[in-house]
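Why show two proteins at once? Because comparison is the fastest way to build intuition. When a single record is shown, students tend to memorize it. When two are placed side by side, the eye starts asking what differs. So, the first record is below.
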Amino acid sequence: MDKLQKFELMNKIVRELEDLQNSQTALIEKIGKIEVDNMNGLNDSYLEKNLGTMHGKIAENVDSVTEIFAHFEAQRDEYAEKNSAAIAAAEAAAALEALK
């Protein structure tokens, strides 16, 4: 795998981690809405207990994904900085090849 391919793969992983982070955040928001609805009239103890547990577990996942995302994004940026000339040359060569 050349430097450009590796950089592109790293970018793909960063996008996927960001999507995962957004998905986990959306789950927390949805659970929160259900919890509020339950508190505003239903007061179902089973929902209260289990949604609270789920909320906590997903919040832990969000923290983990956020940490992984930040670490890998920094790693990708460092790689791009160290290999900027090789990446730029490969991108230029690919652009020229695409014109043929």
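Second record. Ask yourself what differs from the first in the token line.
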Amino acid sequence: MNVQDIVNTVSQKAGLDQVTTQKVVGTIFSVLEHEAEGTSASAFFAKIPGADDLAPSI
């Protein structure tokens, strides 16, 4: 699963447009990146292609 798959799934389930959903998912990733202790966020992002790119865009 890549970041676009996550955005698409959240968009469909929440009934949001792609731009809004991308901001929401990016915000969640950004919070995880800044609040997670140790390397857990890095390991998480490494498993989701595109997560690193989306998180800082918010």
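One difference worth noting in the second protein: The mean pLDDT is 84.
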